Amino acid sequence: MSNTKTFVYINRKAPYGTVYALESLEVVLIGAAFEQNVKLVFMDDGVFQLTNAQDPEGIGMKNFSKTYAALGDYDINQIYIDQQSLDDRGLTIDDLQALVYEDEDDDWNEKSSIHLVNREQLSDIIDSADVLLNF
Amino acid sequence: MSTLHTVNKSAFERNSLESCLSVCKADASVLLIEDAVVSALQGTSVSDQIKQATDKGIKVFALGEDIKARGLSEKPLMDQITLVDYSGFVKLTTENDRVQNWL
What we know:
The complex is a heterodimer.
Chain A lengths: L5 E6 L8 H12 L5 E6 L36 E4 H6 L11 E4 L5 E4 L1 E4 L1 H9 L3 E4 L1
Parallel strand pairs in A: 1-2, 1-7, 2-3, 3-6
Antiparallel strand pairs in A: 4-5
Chain B lengths: L2 E5 L8 H8 L5 E4 L14 H9 L3 E5 H6 L11 E4 L1 H10 L2 E5 L1
Parallel strand pairs in B: 1-2, 1-5, 2-3, 3-4
């Protein structure tokens, strides 16, 4: 029996107003040490976590958004964004950071970690989980 | 005798803004702060709600520092919404007779 499980993290809160976004990112990075199959979902207000050009200096908080770019180095390269959530919020994929990883099975070519998905695909992602973590 | 209403929750997630607008007088001001600033962008599913309020005469503001924090400075805000900074926030509290916080 394989010891590898599929961990799905569902992120549904905007950053800075609550601590959920930062806590999720920390748990994901800690969990990465255990070499599991990890998928991150950003839906509802969670899509705001990945906006580029975040600058929380004016509200006296630390900009943790740059850390998402490190996920690829931790072999976390399955990042799913809900298209409907972007549409409802007047956002497009161009408003978000480009997150990439180097594919070791393909001569370390840089590839995008981000996949735009619909609700039907999201339900499949949820059903693929051995462990679901919600933030 | 006017009231300043502050809303700090995203309108996509909570009904704070909806409740606030449903009891706002026409001379009231509404200030979007913290996570509520995400509701200020153009072309969202809550834009109509805000437009109906400003059509009634309600003034709606959004706090620039919170917009900047969330990486939304370059995104166009609704024409009906006025951007303010922390000094503007203070000014709004002094210009109104009371503050209602929709926590």
